[in-house]
Fold this sequence. Notes:
Elements: H1 21-29, E1 34-38, E2 54-65, E3 68-83, E4 86-89, E5 98-101, H2 103-114, E6 120-125
Antiparallel strand pairs: 1-6, 2-3, 2-6, 3-4, 4-5
Amino acid sequence: LSPDTWVNPHKSSIGLGNYDINVITAALNSKDQDLVWFDKRKDPRTIKLEHIQGCILNVPNDWKVGWITLPFNRKHWIAYKKLGDSWYNLDSKIKKPEIIGDDTDFYKFLDSQLSDGAKELFLLCG
Protein backbone atom coordinates (compact mmCIF):
# COMPACT_ATOMS: atom_id res chain seq x y z
CA LEU A 1 0.00 0.00 0.00
CA SER A 2 1.49 3.31 -1.15
CA PRO A 3 4.92 1.81 -1.97
CA ASP A 4 5.92 4.65 -4.32
CA THR A 5 5.21 7.51 -1.95
CA TRP A 6 7.88 9.17 0.13
CA VAL A 7 5.55 9.48 3.09
CA ASN A 8 3.71 6.21 3.62
CA PRO A 9 0.46 6.69 5.58
CA HIS A 10 0.39 3.01 6.51
CA LYS A 11 3.49 2.87 8.69
CA SER A 12 5.43 4.86 11.25
CA SER A 13 6.61 8.27 10.07
CA ILE A 14 10.15 7.45 11.20
CA GLY A 15 10.20 4.23 9.17
CA LEU A 16 10.30 1.72 12.00
CA GLY A 17 7.46 -0.51 10.92
CA ASN A 18 4.39 -0.06 13.10
CA TYR A 19 2.21 -0.95 10.15
CA ASP A 20 -1.47 -0.19 10.36
CA ILE A 21 -4.26 -2.71 10.00
CA ASN A 22 -4.62 -2.06 6.24
CA VAL A 23 -1.13 -3.47 5.60
CA ILE A 24 -1.74 -6.51 7.79
CA THR A 25 -5.11 -7.11 6.14
CA ALA A 26 -3.62 -6.86 2.64
CA ALA A 27 -0.84 -9.30 3.56
CA LEU A 28 -3.31 -11.80 5.01
CA ASN A 29 -5.68 -11.41 2.04
CA SER A 30 -2.76 -12.34 -0.25
CA LYS A 31 -2.72 -15.67 1.64
CA ASP A 32 -6.52 -16.12 1.34
CA GLN A 33 -7.06 -15.16 4.98
CA ASP A 34 -9.55 -12.61 6.30
CA LEU A 35 -9.18 -10.38 9.33
CA VAL A 36 -12.29 -9.36 11.29
CA TRP A 37 -12.37 -6.64 13.96
CA PHE A 38 -13.85 -7.79 17.26
CA ASP A 39 -16.11 -5.33 19.08
CA LYS A 40 -14.48 -5.28 22.53
CA ARG A 41 -17.77 -4.17 24.10
CA LYS A 42 -18.90 -7.77 23.57
CA ASP A 43 -17.97 -10.70 25.75
CA PRO A 44 -15.01 -12.57 24.19
CA ARG A 45 -16.93 -15.80 24.85
CA THR A 46 -19.08 -14.90 21.84
CA ILE A 47 -16.07 -15.75 19.67
CA LYS A 48 -16.37 -19.26 18.26
CA LEU A 49 -12.74 -20.25 18.73
CA GLU A 50 -13.17 -23.36 16.61
CA HIS A 51 -13.98 -21.12 13.61
CA ILE A 52 -10.87 -18.91 13.72
CA GLN A 53 -7.25 -19.56 12.74
CA GLY A 54 -5.92 -17.27 15.46
CA CYS A 55 -6.08 -13.63 16.43
CA ILE A 56 -4.02 -10.47 16.58
CA LEU A 57 -4.07 -8.00 19.44
CA ASN A 58 -3.00 -4.38 18.91
CA VAL A 59 -1.54 -2.98 22.14
CA PRO A 60 -0.07 0.40 23.17
CA ASN A 61 3.71 0.34 23.26
CA ASP A 62 5.70 3.06 25.05
CA TRP A 63 9.14 3.99 23.82
CA LYS A 64 11.61 4.56 26.62
CA VAL A 65 15.21 5.68 26.75
CA GLY A 66 16.31 4.80 30.25
CA TRP A 67 13.55 6.12 32.49
CA ILE A 68 12.32 8.73 29.97
CA THR A 69 9.21 7.89 27.96
CA LEU A 70 9.39 9.32 24.44
CA PRO A 71 6.29 11.01 22.99
CA PHE A 72 5.68 8.50 20.19
CA ASN A 73 2.23 6.94 19.91
CA ARG A 74 3.17 3.42 18.91
CA LYS A 75 1.23 0.21 18.87
CA HIS A 76 2.50 -3.36 18.82
CA TRP A 77 0.87 -6.34 17.12
CA ILE A 78 0.79 -9.66 18.97
CA ALA A 79 -0.36 -12.90 17.35
CA TYR A 80 -2.09 -15.76 19.20
CA LYS A 81 -2.65 -19.23 17.80
CA LYS A 82 -4.08 -22.51 18.99
CA LEU A 83 -1.81 -25.51 18.50
CA GLY A 84 -3.30 -28.79 19.64
CA ASP A 85 -5.42 -28.04 22.70
CA SER A 86 -3.48 -24.95 23.83
CA TRP A 87 -3.36 -21.29 22.87
CA TYR A 88 0.04 -19.62 22.50
CA ASN A 89 1.32 -16.05 22.67
CA LEU A 90 3.54 -15.57 19.59
CA ASP A 91 4.77 -12.06 20.49
CA SER A 92 7.93 -11.17 18.57
CA LYS A 93 9.30 -9.47 21.70
CA ILE A 94 9.56 -12.70 23.69
CA LYS A 95 12.27 -15.33 23.27
CA LYS A 96 9.92 -18.24 22.66
CA PRO A 97 6.16 -18.78 22.41
CA GLU A 98 4.35 -18.68 25.75
CA ILE A 99 1.52 -21.04 26.50
CA ILE A 100 -1.72 -19.37 27.59
CA GLY A 101 -3.75 -22.52 28.08
CA ASP A 102 -6.96 -24.10 26.81
CA ASP A 103 -10.02 -22.31 25.42
CA THR A 104 -11.30 -21.38 28.90
CA ASP A 105 -7.91 -19.88 29.79
CA PHE A 106 -7.81 -18.02 26.48
CA TYR A 107 -11.24 -16.48 27.07
CA LYS A 108 -10.05 -15.29 30.50
CA PHE A 109 -6.91 -13.92 28.89
CA LEU A 110 -8.92 -12.00 26.30
CA ASP A 111 -11.17 -10.63 29.06
CA SER A 112 -8.14 -9.26 30.89
CA GLN A 113 -6.55 -7.81 27.76
CA LEU A 114 -9.67 -6.05 26.49
CA SER A 115 -10.81 -4.70 29.86
CA ASP A 116 -8.61 -1.56 29.81
CA GLY A 117 -10.08 -0.32 26.52
CA ALA A 118 -6.76 0.61 24.89
CA LYS A 119 -6.33 -2.61 22.93
CA GLU A 120 -7.98 -3.85 19.73
CA LEU A 121 -8.61 -7.48 18.79
CA PHE A 122 -8.75 -8.87 15.26
CA LEU A 123 -9.83 -12.41 14.44
CA LEU A 124 -8.11 -14.38 11.70
CA CYS A 125 -10.59 -16.35 9.62
CA GLY A 126 -9.39 -18.64 6.85
